[in-house]
Amino acid sequence: MSSDVTRVSVRVTGTVQGVGFRPFVYALAARLGLSGFVGNDSDGVFAEVEGSPAAVAEFLVAVRRDAPPLARVDQVVSEKMQPYGTAGFLIAPSAPGAERTALISADSAMCADCLAELRDPADRRYAYPFINCTNCGPRFTIVTDVPYDRPNTTMAPFAMCGPCAAEYHDPANRRFHAQPVCCPACGPRLGLRGPDGSPVGAGDPLAAAAALLRDGQVLAVKGLGGYHLAVDAASEDAATALRARKHREDKPFAVMAAGLAAAQQLCEVDEAAAELLTSPRRPIVLLPRRPGTVAAAVAPGNRALGVMLPYTPLHHLLLEAVGRPIVLTSGNLSDEPIAYHDEDAFARLAEIADAFLTHDRAIHIRTDDSVVRVWGGVAGSELAEHGREMLIRRSRGCVPEPVRVPARFPRPVLACGAELKNTFCLAKGDRAFVSHHIGDLENAATLRSFTEGIEHFGRLFGIEPEVVAFDLHPEYLSTKYALDMDLDSCGVQHHHAHIASCLADNGHDGPVIGVAFDGTGYGTDGTLWGGEFLVADLAGFERAGHLRPVPMPGGAAAIRQPWRMAAAYLRAAFPGGPPAGLDVVKRNARNWAAIISLAERGVNAPVSSSAGRLFDAVAALLSVRDTINYEGQAAVELEQLADPGEAGSYWAAVTGQGPFCIEGSDLVRAVAGELAEGTPAPLIAARFHNGIAALIEDGCVLARERHGLDTVALSGGVFQNVLVTERAAVRLAARGFRVLLHSRVPCNDGGISFGQAVVAGARDRNDGVGPGLRRGGSGGCPPG
Ligand SMILES: [Zn+2]
Ligand SMILES: [Zn+2]
């Protein structure tokens, strides 16, 4: 009977464009014997299907359950319609739409099918460096506009050849509607250029590039999100030359290995790390390094190595041709943003690279590699599985995947982020689009990628912000940018943003005890904070306690020279003068008195409760280093010095009736005392780390007594330190706290924009009534 036919219109939202969704729907409808059509518009995928009620019902389940690998289905909404009695199933051409909420997927590493074709001499794409399909390849980095169709990508100038067009139009083909589809006959081409950017020689550019690398030269390679600089990872001379030319003194270089087995020769790779290394995101994974496998200059003084596996066909071919791991570091000078336009790269990298391995597919948006750490989690607790992966930088392969939040944003928000490791965030509905890593907003080029990035995201995701959120630091360029906008504004204290970010990362509204430990952030009292215990919800916070502020002699100079913090902390710990014979005093004898005097008189010595500066002080005391060459270096090396088997701990006093104050100088006194007794530095470093975990525990216990809260959120750059995070989480769990850690956004300043956005959203939901909690006061303890 014909009454046994139903028809529904279906709308699928989420990341459903550029991931093979229409062919998937087509195949599904064919399998179930349904007629109708499917299409793409700016909101996602729409379809109408007609057939037996059972088949239609199965369709509505399978459309979510069996979605293609790169798809993320947020919602499937269906509505019953009058049957048409049509036969056959069609794929409708894309139509431009008014509202743009369709999601563009992140760039994805080459899939196994494409890799097999790449290696198959009989395949027409054999050894073709731009092979891709519906399940893999460039996406975010080549998209210029929505909807996601070839004319709106940087593949637009390449007209498909007959065979490629046939695959593109064949619903049964793996390349059906794969927008970047191409082949050697019609697609981008590789070229080798000299240091001045002019083409060199005939012959195979890839073989020539590999020969250059084997010969110890520096090669610039155009990747997915920008240019990398490559050298033979085993060559001390090449790595040293690259450091000198790049003006990068110590900051570790990442290494690309041909495959998992090659990575295992460089580093200890456990199961979780292997999974991350081979995931479609292909991040740089920081792993314990095996000694003597790469040149010392690759990661000087570092027990870890950042490793990644090839994620483009070009990487696969290059690694196979070189035959051993290569350094693959960002194509830039010092702290500039990575180059991604050819002419800009030729100009800026001319002094660094001996040659350029490049091609004619443009990169539309600069995207750095993502970076993750792996750690054990906390056995026997809720965090057992949770902690395996720690995001350090969320960028290529992750962005622009939105972070979903439980409470909707009443109005679209732009959050401008922090100054260092900047990201911005555009949020609307229940989605927060946290940008790729922009970098340190200190130079014009980075600021330009910040402003251009905001425009691009706004266009791609159809978000016109009505509220702008920003850091309270008046000198941040991101803050100045925000204040220049004619929008409702929402200033968010730096550490509150960290805690709000962690809350929303966990789908939690608060209130919680938030422990925000980092370098520095601007406090509501105009001093620099960074060792904070906040009682916070999404809308507001109260400063419950903090490390006792200590002068930073010379201001910013004290950040670059940790020995100055050692001087300031020793002065606080030993009012009568430090014990005799401390190496840090001897090494800096010439300037010691002057620095103590700055701290004493409070001249050019802003006080700060920063936990990062306490790590710096101890690193200098233990002779890890007196000056740093990149942000966080002293703390990174101090963590590596610590003996992970040591359970002993130092102890810091907690005092104060209002916001409590923790005496960080107690830890410094213990460190100096044990140093004088000749205790080995790895034990002291471990006891210091355990002491930080213990003071976090003590602060949280006191905050629980005072505020009746038993959930703790840990955020801020200090929690990139696995030893601190793990020890603190274990202690807190043992005391009956529920512990919230980050998983979808970084705990460092890369997560600040997300935190600012959710604070702005929460205050907006409060309908202008103001923060749910009183804003933080100035704190009750005088500087030590
Ligand atoms: Zn593929
Ligand atoms: Zn072709």
Describe the structure.
- The radius of gyration is 28 Å and the shape is globular.
- The chain starts with 5 loop residues before the first strand and ends in a 19-residue tail after the last helix.
- The model is unreliable at 769-780 (pLDDT under 50).
- With 784 residues, the protein is α/β, with parallel strands linked by helices.
- Helices cover 33% and strands 21% of the residues.
- The chain binds zinc ion (ZN) (2 copies).
Largest sheet: 10 strands, mixed
β-strand number: 28
Strand content: 15-25%
Poorly predicted ranges (pLDDT <50, ≥5 residues)?
Answer: 769-780
* Alpha carbon gap, first and last residue: 87 Å
Bulk shape: globular
Summed over residues and divided by their number, the pLDDT gives a mean of 92
Tally of helical segments:
24
Q: Which ions and ligands are bound to the chains?
A: zinc ion
Strand order of the largest sheet: 6-13-7-8-12-9-11-10-14-15
Determine the structural class based on helices, strands and strand pairing: alpha/beta
Q: Which bin fits the share of residues in helices?
A: 25-40%
Secondary structure layout:
Blueprint (H helix, E strand, L loop, with lengths): L5 E10 L5 H12 L2 E7 L2 E8 L1 H13 L6 E10 L7 E3 L20 H7 L43 H8 L20 E4 L11 H10 L4 E4 L4 E6 L3 H11 L7 E3 L3 H7 L4 H8 L5 E5 L15 E5 L4 H10 L3 E5 L11 H7 L6 E5 L11 E4 L8 H4 L2 E5 L9 E13 L9 E10 L9 H17 L6 E5 L5 H7 L4 E5 L1 H12 L6 E11 L5 E9 L4 E7 L2 E2 L4 H5 L1 H12 L9 H5 L1 H13 L5 E2 L2 H11 L11 H9 L12 E2 L4 E3 L1 H13 L4 H27 L3 E5 L6 H13 L3 E3 L11 H14 L19
Parallel strand pairs: 2-5, 7-13, 9-11, 10-14, 16-18, 18-19, 20-27, 22-26, 27-28
Antiparallel strand pairs: 1-3, 1-4, 2-3, 6-13, 7-8, 8-12, 9-12, 10-11, 14-15, 16-17, 20-21, 21-22, 23-24, 25-26
